[in-house]
Amino acid sequence: MRQFHNARLRVGLSWPNLSAALGRDADARRWGVLYLGSVQPGGVAASAGRRAVIAVDRKGAPLPDQDMALAGLDGLILLDGSWSQAKALWWRNPWLLKSRRLVLDPRFRSAYGRYRREPRPDAVSTLEAAGLALADLERRPEFAEAAVGVLRLLVQNYAAAGESGSPDSAMLSTAAAAPRRSGLKRPRQRRR
Length: 192
Prior knowledge:
Elements: H1 18-22, E1 31-34, H2 44-48, E2 53-56, H3 66-70, E3 75-77, H4 83-92, E4 100-104, H5 126-138, H6 142-164, H7 173-177, H8 179-182
Parallel strand pairs: 1-3, 1-4
Antiparallel strand pairs: 2-4
Helix pairs in contact: 5-6
């Protein structure tokens, strides 16, 4: 997808600092990290102006000046994997604590729907989170729809293949081949 053309994928569990993770000089304080928690109750809409991305303090409370907190970010860090893997990445990379903590306030449910159990109703996939965050930070709503649209299509094809009894026809072939590893659950087959 074109909106992710500047994205860099780094595979691993821990790095000594952001510069080592990126392979170039970088100051973690100028980067945002999509934090795994949710914003604490108490006026998210009033504090954040109903933005999809909310800068929070270490306790999860929205920062008072959202525009200032979100301005001038050099980049955005997303932790990808299962929820337990993402938590391990958070705890094994203490330099992430220097980054600006960002949480999402999505206005939609994850496209995975019934195929993946989420820890909270507002939890979304990494692809959805990236699209939503970029759409909000760049003020380009089409980014979110492009990312979510692709995922919806893949999940629809997966569902259709499961209902027809032909998992080989699913476009989401890695999930069809290994549903537990991908986090997707196969739909139950209908008895005839």
